[in-house]
Amino acid sequence: MFPIKAIFGPLADKVVKKTIKTWQNIKTSKYINHDDQEKHPTTPIPFKIGGLTLPMITHNGSYANSLRALSDMLRSHYDAGYFPIVSSGETCDALGYGADVLESLQQPYGYYFTHKSGESYKCWTNYGTRELFSQISLANSLKLTPVIIAVGGGVNGNCIGLIAAMTGADLVEIPTTPMHFNDATTSAKKAFSLVKECKILSKNILGAFYIPKLVFCISETFLTLSSANAHATVGEACKTMNMEYPVYQQNDVA
């Protein structure tokens, strides 16, 4: 009933007014139906949500070429420069994916944020660090757009996406699991769970709906998946289909 109070305690009433800018996605047309398909083979998977088209693209080229394509897309969109903040859990950090992404962007400023992985760490204490918020504040003071880039699984995308929503930062998601690609990006839901002593008391109790400006999948990262990742994705897809099928059936009868 009172998720904010349950997590943060009672807070004084406060009203904040802020003008919301028009949402603009990062253009992917340069890498769709282009001449150099051998070097940059891409598959667009556009997804419509809330009347907006979320640009989703799978880059099937080499790992290095995928990183170059991502860097080029972001540089073209943020022609005045930007402040990348790459969020990566301990699993992706061990594989080097997050650090590779930040290095490939070649921006004068940036921050690499690492944290614990998994559902039992899907909480504000794992992500809402003073250093992370100070880096977002630094980006704003430099008049650079803070671009939070979620590299990894769905929990990372959910949680760091909520940080982006709370701070008004731009969000880019780079899923390295099919669960993140299939579920966490397209739902637009970004949330923390209520976790105490690594026990989940309530899932997704505090959150927001926040749409990323780009979902960029590097297909080569899927080579490091475990069978558990594939099983979890199939299970999630089956759950979603079971939830939606009765609705379609009822509408058909009506």
Beta-strand residue fraction:
25-35%
Rg from alpha-carbon coordinates: 19 Å
Give me the secondary-structure category.
Answer: alpha/beta
Strand order of the largest sheet: 1-4-11-8-7-5-6
Approximate shape: globular
Ranges with pLDDT <50 over ≥5 residues? 244-254
Total of helices: 9
Determine the N-to-C terminus distance.
Answer: 34 Å
Count of DSSP strands: 11
Query: Overall mean pLDDT score?
Result: 87
Biggest sheet descriptor:
7 strands, mixed
Helix content: 25-40%
Question: What is the string of helix and strand elements?
Answer: HEEEEHEHHEHHEHEHEEEH
How would you characterize the overall build of this protein?
By secondary structure, the chain is α/β, with parallel strands linked by helices. It contains 9 helices and 11 strands. It has helices spanning 3-8, 63-77, 90-95, 97-105, 124-127, 130-141, 154-167, 178-184, 227-253, and strands at residues 42-44, 47-49, 52-54, 56-59, 82-89, 111-115, 145-152, 170-175, 189-196, 199-209, 214-218. Strands 1-4-11-8-7-5-6 form a 7-stranded mixed sheet, with helices on both faces. Strands 2-3 form a two-stranded antiparallel ribbon. Helix 2 packs across helix 4 (97-105), helix 7 packs across helix 8 and helix 8 (178-184) packs parallel to helix 9 (227-253). The chain is globular, with a radius of gyration of 19 Å. 33% of the residues are buried.
